[in-house]
Request: fold
Amino acid sequence: MVANIAVLLLGGAAACVQAAAYPSHAPLFDYERRHLTPSHVSRWSPENRALFRFDSDEDFQKRDLRQRKGECKVFPGDKDWPSDKEWEKFNKQVDGALIPTVPLAAPCYKNWGVYDQAKCAEITARFTDPYLHTADPASGMWPTYQGRTCLAHDSPNDNCTLGGYPSYAVKITNVAQIQTSINFARNKNLRLVIKNTGHDFLGKSLGAGSLSLWTHALKDLDFIESYKSDSGYRGPAIKVGAGVIFRELYDFAHEKGVIVAGGICETVGYAGGYFALGGHTPMSGYYGMAADSIEAIQLVTADGKFITASSKQNAELFWALRGGGGSTFGVVTSVITRAHPKMPVVTTTLFFGVGGDVTNDIFWQGIKAYFEQFPLWAENRAYTFFVVGPGFFDPTQLSFALVPFWAPGHTIESSNKLLQPWLDRLAELGIQVTPNVTRFDSFKEAHAASWPGITVGSVGLNNNRLFPKSIWEDAGKFERFMGVLRRHVDEGRSIVGYFQAPRNRLNVDNAVSSAWRHANAFLLSGAPIEGGENATQAQLQAAAKNNIEYMEPWRELSRPRDFGGSYGNEGDVVEPKWQEEFYGIQYERLLRVKGKWDPKDVFYATTAVGSERWEVRDGDWGTQTQMGRLCRI
Reply:
């Protein structure tokens, strides 16, 4: 349809440049200066105004009656799907940035007309590399939620389909394109999705029949040495573009002699879903969650307006944007985050496993002694990342890997002192370990040495729990907790875990889940899928059911009423009662903010605030894929 459209720049969105004032005490990026106002649209032809108009205040308060009757977002093949002429007009308005989706692995199949055996081999070899997917306008990193309809295998005679991939993406290079895209999607009743990197574990950046806003090119960074925030914060800050990933942000902060509270995976985007649902960080002992350091947000809202949110400007929306979930309230174009003082980090790694004189019982006594240290470590601002389960030394034997114990602001001596009670207990048990201790002068150096990257592109199901500190305050609960973990691993499953205690270190008011404010441990697991990439519908349904059932003992120890819960960015897409599990006591307030700022549900993402009003009709795979119509329930 639009693959061969000539690009016409005159009259497009980029031609509309608004010389805006500087909001929130910091200049707009150049790409943010190129934004639209209703006065621009008023000068367009009636036909263009119908397609790209903003919602007026009156219109914006009216819900779409078709949606209230349970109808669906427009889908390819429907009579209301935009015509070729309308797609051409839209492409012109976004400066020729409209990209028809071709699945990343399409060169492995003949039905797309792009079969290339050598290219297929390259894609297959790199399919687990996050950078491959971040560079593609539509690809997500977890094929389970796309529908597994075009995997990277040399299968020339098989059929590769879009499945849950969007129909089109817009490569965003200025705010006017975001506004035009939102207005077009809203006015034509299209499903809209947002992608930066595609990291989302639940497939929120996917959606069959959708228009995707690909923000990955918004890479600007600006260091503000003396920032004056609406909240009263005074000090250094960094303004971060929506497409910036952690590696880029950490490099930039390091050059400026500061650090930013971000995550461990270098390819995750900072200013998107990560901070939007809180954002856990190895610096949590000092600064809490990443969302706690955010001082201002530039975004485009569901009515197409470009606004600022801060503690004094659109304050209720600002509250919700920091912890209330991504793809929910608007499209973020940049954020301003506090920049914290540079500090050294000491890391310690060690490994041990079952074997020799170390029996299963002795092994678990060592693990129990490890968990017993969490309150002490919380007081001293430490953080850990670890894996316990079969496979490190011998696939048939249990092992434990601490990779690493992370002690920011500590010396080698003070870090060793924190670990010594546990190491002494291991020695008593006859568990021999050789700690590898390293001091780094900076966060960036420690991060690069500790977390070189992750692999993606696999088929599987995720789950996690946030365990509250109250478990450590009750001996009976703690014994039950350790018993639950042991049974889980004894049944052949691994646990990936973090000790972290974010609390509310900066004493801010935002929508971060109450579970994070009380957490002492964040533990993840998952369910195997019989059949793997070729799993049938019945096999995936069984795996999804199994995933829920296996986690029930974890839930019993970490109910929201006890300030437990689950982290929505890495959770189960069909988590029971996800509203309270992912958002804690904040959910009802978040729902009210959603109703005010997006009454027509322009923005939808699975398990996002208000998404219970919608369903993706994918044929029931047990877990929610994105390969179906989006319809109001």
Notes: Residues 193 and 212 are 5 Å apart (CA to CA).
